[in-house]
């Protein structure tokens, strides 16, 4: 009987001691951001032909990535689609966009003029160039179905293969919540 009491007391003492040891608090870890954050990120975008006021796809969102250059420049970033998008030319096949563009981190803006998008490596002939204007990121401006606020990205895109046509690329920072993945009716 006395042995059970001693064992019970030891167990209670161990639980009590473990409680105080496990309540140790730690500070939040330091997060290292890219030099162009908050311009960098993964975005879900839709593409609108502003001349015809129609979406390139009424049911699809495209994935776009913006990320820093290898030299960690604060004045340039990469813009790349990670999903196939129409090249906005009726006789073309699906392609992706990848361009190094100018950016202003403090102004949350970006643009470029006449960047070579497609180059024939055999003949070294330029196949297509792009111009991006009015590029901007607006922080915490899209209310997502998951209940969180997300950042918005938008820019106008012109392609030499589609003269006279301007496309509006508009979207939000990807949250990876399931209910946000197919969200296309944001304002």
Automatic annotation (TrEMBL):
GO terms for molecular function: hydrolase activity. It comes from Paludibacter jiangxiensis. Gene3D superfamilies: 2.40.128.220. Keywords: Hydrolase, Signal. This is Lipid-binding putative hydrolase. It holds the Pfam family Lipid_bd. InterPro entries: Lipid-bd_put, Lipid-bd_sf. The lineage of its organism: Bacteria, Pseudomonadati, Bacteroidota, Bacteroidia, Bacteroidales. Residues 1-27 form the signal peptide. The keyword Hydrolase applies.
